[in-house]
Amino acid sequence: MEVIVKKDKLQLIAILILTAFIISCSKEVKEQKPVEAKVETSVKIEPKENEFLSKPEYNTHVKSPEQIKELEEKYKESKEYEEKLKQLGAELDKKEKILNYKFPTGITIDELAQQKAPVLYSPADNLEFIHFYEIKKDGEFCYCKYKAPTQNGGTLDYQVTYKWYNIEQMYLPLSYDLLSENNMGRINEDLIENQVHGSVYSMENDEKKDEMIKLFEDYENTQYPLFKEVVHTDWDTGVKTIGYKQYDMKILDYVKGNFTNSGYDEYFVMFYEDDPDPEIYDQFIKRVRCFVVSEGKIISDYYISNSGGFFYPGLSNDKLSEVKDFGFKFSQGWIADFNQNGINEIYLAAFFSIEGGGLLMVEYNDGFFVTDYVYGDRYDIVSIDWYKKMIIIKDKSGNGEWIDDYQWNDTLKEFILYKEQILGGLRNEKNY
Q: Which of 4, 196, 197, 272 is 20 to 30 A from 326 in CA distance terms?
């Protein structure tokens, strides 16, 4: 009996040793694998052309030469189209920089002697300094006149009022005032009463919402498909393969109204890019378009340049609700003929943070939609004045508090800074 017990113990010990050996070997193999993979992938391996991944999410089930060529052509066309859109975006960026050029910062005694002041915001076309053409001093105050470019190629005269501060040893701005005469155009009493041409309603109130969403998405993804090159690495072999994946455009929101006076149904539509691996802010305005629809078919479409702000469903960060008498409000702005020229404008709020952002004005003009800034800073709209065609905005930050009046200029066809008053604190930060 004792012999049997000893034999069983020996067998058990042998099994335990064998198990430990197997586990040890397995662990060693697992530990070696990453090292081997690292060595292999450290070697530069060129992607194989015309070779597609086997995974269906990369559209690589297509393997025939004809189908491969077709996808390559779609990718090429998509890349060219996206480049055109980037160029339009770059033109809008230039307008923003020009818009902000009209604010000279605080100046030292030496800079005053040189009759120049640094620009508050990022300069446009290397316009780093504003040069004064006239300076008047009155005790601790200083009045400096200068010229500032506008978004649409004009030039306006302004005056900045400075006050000397001993602690900072600088002249700091108190106000900016327009000196040039401003032509705001005629006032239409009847329009002020109605504010919008024709009927306007949002996507959420459209009985045909599902039908229209499908129509717009199918059209956009067929006529202007977005293809991207996808490179996949096989980490076991280090081999890289190239595929082409289509990223569909999805509807964020739309507004039905009259934007071109075509006489047909017209829709202002915002898209986002359907990315299976989205960023934190996955609902980013990728494209904005106006569709003209007749009998359930799109007969015309217009691309609208925009600053690509974040879309907040349900206005979780509502900066719009406090504004009264500003036409028709939708999720990202307002529809109104505020400049009173017979065509509805789209005032598109571009939110880039919870602090708010700039305001764009989009208007149809001679076959195209033209996009300009009303303002490009972090402001809240305080009020609007239809009889002065003026949008009054206000900002309060750690640097100070100020209020701006932006007024329509009918000659330049854009909103211009009419006046800024610094109510408290200092507005002297310089951002690049």
A: 272
